[in-house]
Structures are given as C-alpha cells and as structure tokens.
Write a structure and sequence with these properties.
Elements: H1 2-12, E1 24-26, E2 35-41, H2 45-57, E3 63-66, E4 94-98, E5 111-115, H3 134-149, H4 157-166, E6 169-171, H5 175-181, E7 197-199, H6 208-217, E8 233-236, H7 251-257, E9 265-268, E10 271-277, E11 288-293, E12 299-310, H8 317-323, E13 326-327, H9 329-334, E14 341-342, E15 357-362, H10 374-377, H11 379-390, E16 405-410, H12 411-414, H13 419-431, H14 447-465, E17 470-475, E18 484-487, E19 489-490, E20 498-500, E21 511-513, H15 521-533, H16 540-544, E22 547-551, H17 554-557, H18 560-570, E23 605-607, H19 622-642
Parallel strand pairs: 1-9, 2-3, 2-12, 3-9, 6-7, 12-23, 13-14
Antiparallel strand pairs: 4-5, 8-16, 10-11, 11-12, 15-18, 15-22, 16-17, 17-19, 20-21
Helix pairs in contact: 2-7, 2-19, 3-14, 4-19, 13-14, 13-15
The structure holds flavin-adenine dinucleotide and 2-acetamido-2-deoxy-beta-D-glucopyranose (9 copies).
Length: 643
C-alpha cells in the first residue's frame, strides 16, 4: 500500500502529469523481468538519452535503467521562490562531495555536486547550455593516436557536430527581444527536434550591456554564434529551458516523460548498482548487474542478454567498476577487492574547471536598474517577477537562469609575450620525461598512464598555442555587493586527480583527490589569465564608473609569488564539471574504453557518460553529455543491427 501511495505521489509531481511516461516505473526488484537485453546503470543526462534511443530502435528488445534516485520535480536554477541562484528549496537531491585538501592550492578542498535523481545532473545544473570549441574535441582524436583516429568511430568535432545538432531543439528569440539585447545566433549550428530545449531569456539585468561594452573595449568581438565550433570573443549562450514556459529542460523530461510510452522500457528507481559480475570470466559477457535496494540493503542480480552500459557519471561510474574488480590492481588489493582486470585509468585522470575571481567595486554612483539584489530587497519587484514567470509566455528575471553570456579567450590573445614559454615548458616536460612525476604517486611508474599523460600534455600545449582555441572563460559578471566579480575559468587544466572507493565504506561516496595545481603549469596559466582579466578595470567604461579593484590589486598582480598566493586563497576548485575518469584512450595510454566505448578487456560492457572524455573541453558539460550519448547510442544501435 505504502509503495503504491508513494508511486502515485511522485507521478503527480510530474510536470506533464497528463502524459504517460515512456518507461514503466519499477520500485521493487520483484517487479522486474527475468532478463533484459540492455541494462543501463544511471538514469541521468547520458543514461536516459541512450535508453530513449535504444528502446525506440529495438521495440523487441527489453531495456532496464537502474537509478539511485527517484522522480522529482526539478525547478530551474533560478525559479520562484528563490531570490537568486543559491539553493532552491524545491531542488531534487544531489550528492555533495568535499575533496581531500589540495596541497598545491593552500590545502583548499573542492566542493562538487552531482544529481541523485532521475535526470541526473541535468536536473540540478546551472542550465548554461554551451558547447566547446572544435579544437577541444579534435584533441580527443589527437590523444587517441593513430589507432583511434583511423577507427570507424572516430571522435572529433566533425563527427560529434551532427550529434550536437540532433540532441537539442533550438528556438530563436522573437525579433523584438533579439533586437532589445542584440542576441545573435546561427541556425546552421542547430536543426534537431529532440525535446531537449535551448532558448534565450527575454530578460537581462541592467549591467549586462555594461559588461559587454567593457569586453569590447578590451578588444574582444561579439561572436555571431559560438555553438558551431568557433568559440571566441563575446558569446551568447542559450539556457536549457523551454522557450515558452522557461522551465528547466532536462533528460527526465526530454528522454522519458515527453516521449511516447514503450512496452520494452523499464526504469527501476531507488536502487544502487553495486557492481557488475562475470560468473564465467571477463570474456563471457555481458555481466550480471548486482543492485542494492536502498530501502533495506538487500542485493539482487539482474541478468542481461545483450550488454551493460555504465552511465553513473564521472564520480560514480569508477566506483561501480572498482567494486567489480576493474581498476588499478594495487589499489583494489589494498581495498580488499580481488582484481579481475588491471585498468589503472579507472578513477584516474580526474579533471574539472577551476579558477579565481577578479573583484572590484564602483566609487561613483551608478543607476543600473534592475540588478539581482532587487529580488531580495524589493518585495514588489519579486512579486512582479513571479507573476511574469507564471505568464504565457514566461517573462522577467526568473526566465534568466543565471546569465547567458560569457567571454572565451585564447592564451596567445591574453599573453602574447608569455604564452610561448608556457607552451615550451609543457613540451619540455614531455620531452625530458618528467611529466609523469606530476601524476598521483601510485601511477607515476605506470608506463601506460605516463604515455597517456604525455599525449594529453602535448595536445594541451597545442591548444594553448592556438590563437583560436579559448583557454579562459569568464561568464557574465555580476555588479553586486559587496563586490563585482569576474571569474577566470581555467579551461584546460594539466593537473590530474583521482576518484577512489572509500576503503572503510566502499558502498558510500568515493574519495575525491583533486590534486589541483599539482602540475605547476596550471598556476602559470592562472597568472596569465588573471592579469589579462584585470585589464577590464582600465577600460573607459569602468573608469567612467570609478571602478576600484578589490582583488587581486595592482601590487599583488605585479608579483608572481603574491599573485600565486592570491590564486591559492581565492580559487574555487570546482565549477561542477568533473570528468574523464574512465577515459577513451588506447589501453597502452591508460585508457578504459575504446572508440566504441567498450571497456578494454571486459565483454558486454560499455561506458557512456562524462567519464569517457579523455580531456575536459572548454565548456559546461551538459550539451556535450547529450551529444556524446547520442553518438554512443548510434554506435550501439549499429552494432546490434549488424548481429
Ligand atoms: C550543480 C551543478 C551545476 C552544473 N552546471 C552546469 C551548467 O550550468 N551547464 C552545463 O552544461 N553543465 C553543468 N553541470 C554539469 C553537467 O550537468 C554534468 O556534467 C552532466 O549532466 C553529467 O552527465 P552524466 O550523464 O555524466 O552524469 P549524471 O547526469 O550526473 O547522471 C548520473 C546518474 O547516475 C546515477 N547513479 C550514480 N551512481 C549510481 C549507481 N551506483 N547506481 C545507480 N545509479 C547511479 C545518478 O543518480 C545520476 O542520475 C553542472 C553540474 C552540477 C552538479
Ligand atoms: C597542508 O596540510 C599539510 C598536512 O596537514 C601541512 O603539512 C601543510 O603545511 C599544509 N599547507 C598549508 C599551505 O597550509
Ligand atoms: C591510419 O591511416 C593512415 C592514413 O590512411 C595510415 O597511413 C596509417 O598507417 C593508419 N594507421 C593505423 C594504425 O592503422
Ligand atoms: C546593440 O547594438 C547596437 C549597434 O551595434 C548598439 O548601438 C546598441 O547599444 C546595442 N544594444 C545593447 C543593449 O547592447
Ligand atoms: C552561419 O554559419 C555558417 C557555417 O559557419 C556560415 O556558412 C553562414 O554564413 C552563417 N550564416 C550567417 C547568416 O552568417
Ligand atoms: C550474483 O551472482 C554472483 C555470481 O554468480 C554471486 O556470487 C552472487 O552471490 C549473486 N548475488 C546475489 C544477490 O544473488
Ligand atoms: C571599495 O572597496 C575598497 C576596498 O575594499 C574599499 O576601501 C572602498 O571603501 C570600497 N568603495 C566603495 C564605494 O564601496
Ligand atoms: C521596486 O521594484 C519596483 C518594480 O520594478 C520598482 O518600480 C521600484 O522602483 C522598486 N523600488 C525601489 C526602492 O527600487
Ligand atoms: C624538464 O623540463 C621541465 C620544463 O622545462 C623542467 O622544469 C625540468 O626541470 C626538466 N627536468 C629534467 C629532469 O630535465
Ligand atoms: C570514509 O567513510 C567513513 C565512514 O563512512 C567516513 O568516516 C570517512 O570520512 C570517509 N573518508 C573519506 C576520506 O571521505
């Protein structure tokens, strides 16, 4: 009885309660079928995309998604009743991690989250819906080496772009809104009709054009479109939201609730995939999937006929593998797990975006109205905003997720004199064999890991030397008290961290070791970027407003040592883009999956989520997660059609 009531309650919470969702919701293992053709671990951004495509392509094959979380209403990152983009009380559950201290960043810890809900991180993210530069994705092919470049499933910009287009429906703003804010776009970057929506808000805070003017005075140009592979200058970035209601668009709606019901599609919620099990050895896949009922801790094996796809995200996919005995053997042994397959790349190669701010205040009065602080200080304004959001079409501040513009700048553009030193330092550390010394201690001696890291550093050197490949992102900067703030994102970090099981509690959250700043080149790039960004204070617009720098300040910025101290103290170590912990690289480069996303050496097992990227692209990740999942789904569909 209780279970039925709970199911009815959560179904009532569905935004499209009138529609029957595509999958059959299961809450108990007793409701499952005897066997499934496909099992997908993790009903998040990538997992639901793949599930949708496979169940549509193969009506006669059964598919089960195993999801840790449940179905929840997922408001936008800035929706009523919030005052600003701080925690929305209605947000669905998310995991919160605090990393180990980073010794090279003043022992600071990274705070990272991941969605724990049907829809995964797409249900809790900031809805900033950009794509990387073409060079970011071409670098994946570069680090894969000739074996990967020649594969029929090459991963680069040209082969991913069609899937970026397919994965999303873009709706241009109305002509009057476009003219009001000078929105630009190019439809050739879009063209898909998947019900995952990208659209522009009909609202801007009053300081947006002021910042845009400042950027142009720093020599940056407005880009017509940044989602078509060329990402430089001042970019408009759509939000992942419905063009009419401005409500969050995410994988639970677009790949589950809003697609037609399918008899072959089951979704099991409130269950943790513990591990995959190969009763007859790794070559005899697909494995069984051992799931744990969260309510009582009981275990159950799901039998699979076709294959298993791990889509638990970059922080959890490695835990499923490690609990299965697939990972760095020495670590597994120390954890009391019998190693089945030595793949040192599992849980290694962790990357994320990080960066310090440049801050200032204004010494002269300004009349920017409205600013976000109005939401908290002015009840009339907030009531008007709420009414406007509930109108059709939605209007007003609540339709603007956070901000929807950013600048993207290459290192040669920011530091024309210094960038060659940075680039040649990276190449030298590869050439003289010292690069591997920056890997985690227990991976330094591993030849494959060292070879993969060398390949990545050379690819990053090429990115940092490329005047058309952005190294810095600064999202829309606020003018708010106490300080106006412009963040300096490091888009291509060289440091590498780890995700590993907690030895005393392997079923709980893993231990994250970010190791930020462990490769000293990252600090050199931070310094160059902060120095460039400080240039905004000297622009005519900022001088006219009497901008006074708060941090780092001219005296600090003049000294490498002081500025590095500033970075260590002020840096935010995660912008919530963890990735790359089961990298698509050859096995002799420390890879975990091949270009077909099959785990090296384990039959019937693939990975499709943000852990398969070998290197972090210069973008927030959700659009890339959808595109990777779309391409992966095609690869899997082709493979089963051939059988
Ligand atoms: C707070 C936050 C803000 C962000 N802001 C932005 C942004 O503004 N723009 C942007 O583009 N990107 C943003 N991102 C990043 C982006 O949303 C994610 O990188 C992307 O959605 C990850 O997709 P995924 O498929 O790899 O994993 P997820 O979408 O996280 O899916 C993983 C799923 O697996 C489930 N799971 C985990 N372990 C298990 C298990 N053992 N058994 C069963 N299920 C399991 C989880 O519950 C989850 O549903 C943000 C992320 C966060 C967390
Ligand atoms: C970081 O922590 C380590 C271990 O506790 C300590 O030895 C070191 O001095 C700390 N570093 C800083 C900058 O506080
Ligand atoms: C990859 O293709 C190139 C050009 O076709 C060829 O020269 C090279 O030998 C191929 N490499 C591998 C490993 O197959
Ligand atoms: C839009 O562009 C025009 C022409 O370049 C410019 O005059 C105007 O100030 C811009 N408006 C905004 C809001 O940026
Ligand atoms: C849109 O982009 C395409 C491809 O880059 C380009 O050929 C075309 O000229 C652009 N359209 C406009 C209107 O600028
Ligand atoms: C799952 O299968 C494995 C291998 O056959 C077995 O060792 C394990 O006990 C099973 N688990 C459950 C819960 O049945
Ligand atoms: C700006 O910040 C500086 C440094 O914190 C402070 O001294 C000054 O009073 C501030 N000015 C205004 C106008 O807030
Ligand atoms: C509060 O907001 C309303 C509605 O936008 C506006 O008219 C009014 O001027 C604001 N009040 C103050 C004190 O800024
Ligand atoms: C290798 O090159 C790096 C970068 O130039 C340098 O810092 C390091 O000292 C060199 N190491 C050796 C062993 O030569
Ligand atoms: C590991 O798990 C234990 C028990 O839950 C917890 O006390 C400890 O803090 C965890 N360790 C780390 C490094 O997170």
């Amino acid at each position: 009885m209780r279970l039925v009531a709970a199911a009815v309650l959560s179904l009532a919470a569905l935004a499209g309660a009138a529609r029957r969702p595509s999958a059959n919701l299961k809450r108990q293992v007793s409701q499952l079928r005897d066997k499934y053709d496909f099992v997908i671990v993790g009903g998040g951004t990538s997992g639901l995309t793949v599930a949708d495509r496979l169940t549509a392509a193969f009506p006669a094959k059964t598919l089960l998604v195993v999801e840790y979380g449940d179905i929840h209403y997922a408001p936008g990152v800035f929706d009523p009743p919030t005052d600003w983009i701080t925690a929305n009380p209605d947000s669905p559950p998310a995991w919160s991690f605090t990393s180990l201290p980073c010794p090279d960043m003043g022992n600071q810890t990274a705070f990272v989250q991941a969605g724990q809900v049907v829809g995964g991180s797409s249900a809790v993210n900031g809805m900033f819906f950009d794509r990387g530069s073409r060079f970011d994705y071409d670098a994946w092919a570069e680090v894969g080496g000739p074996e990967f470049a020649n594969s029929s499933t090459t991963w680069n910009w040209d082969t991913l772009f069609p899937y970026f287009k397919k994965s999303v429906t873009f709706t241009p703003p109305s002509p009057d809104i476009a003219q009001r804010y000078n929105y630009t776009w190019n439809l050739s970057a879009y063209g898909g009709d998947t019900p995952i929506y990208a659209s522009f808000s009909s609202f801007q805070w009053a300081d947006q054009p002021v910042l845009a003017k400042t950027w142009t005075e720093m020599g940056l140009e407005h880009a017509q479109e940044c989602a078509g592979g060329d990402k430089q200058g001042i970019c408009w970035v759509p939000a992942s939201q419905d063009p009419v209601t401005a409500r969050r668009s995410y994988s639970r709606l677009g790949h589950y609730t809003d697609v037609q019901p399918r008899a072959n599609y089951d979704l099991l919620v409130n269950h943790q995939a513990v591990r995959v099990v190969y009763p007859n050895g790794l070559a005899s896949g697909p494995p069984l999937v051992e799931v744990r009922t969260l309510a009582d801790g009981s275990l159950f094996n799901v039998t699979v006929r076709g294959e298993v796809v791990l889509s638990a995200g970059a922080l959890h996919t490695p835990t499923v593998l490690q609990r299965s005995g697939i990972g760095p053997s020495a670590f597994l042994t120390s954890a009391g797990i019998r190693p089945l397959l030595d793949l040192p790349g599992v849980g290694s190669n962790l990357q994320d975006h990080s960066g310090p701010p440049v801050t200032w205040n204004y010494s002269k009065p300004y009349d920017f109205f409205p600013l976000p602080s109005e939401m908290a200080s002015n009840a009339t304004f907030k009531a008007d905003a709420t009414a406007a959001f509930n109108a059709t079409p939605a209007r007003g501040p609540y339709t603007l997720a956070g901000g929807n513009s950013a600048i993207y700048v290459s290192l040669p553009r920011m530091d024309p004199d210094g960038y060659t030193t940075i680039v040649s330092d990276i190449r030298a550390m590869v050439a003289n064999g010292s690069a591997a010394s920056f890997l985690p201690a227990d991976l330094r001696g591993d030849r494959a890991m060292a070879a993969g890291y060398d390949a990545q550093l050379l690819a990053i050197a090429n990115l940092l030397a490329n005047p058309a490949a952005p190294s810095l992102e600064t999202p829309w900067a606020t003018t708010e008290v106490p300080y106006a703030t412009a963040w300096s994102f490091l888009l291509h970090p060289l440091s590498r961290g780890t995700v590993r099981l907690n030895l005393s509690d392997p079923l709980a959250q893993p231990v994250l070791d970010y190791r930020a700043g462990s490769n000293p080149v990252d600090m050199a790039v931070h310094l160059a970027q902060v120095r460039f960004l400080r240039g905004l204070l000297g622009t005519p617009t900022m001088r006219a407003l009497g901008a006074v720098e708060v941090g780092p300040g001219a005296a600090v910025a003049a000294s490498d040592a002081l500025l590095a101290d500033y970075v260590r103290q002020q840096i935010t170590l995660s912008f919530m883009h963890p990735c790359c912990t089961a990298a698509m690289l050859p096995r002799d480069r420390g890879g975990v999956v091949g270009p077909d996303l099959r785990v090296h050496g384990a039959a019937g097992l693939r990975i499709v989520d943000m852990s398969v990227m070998p290197m972090l692209p210069g973008t927030h990740l959700s659009a890339t997660a959808y595109a990777v999942a779309e391409k992966a789904a095609d690869i899997i569909i082709q493979a089963w059609r051939r059988q």
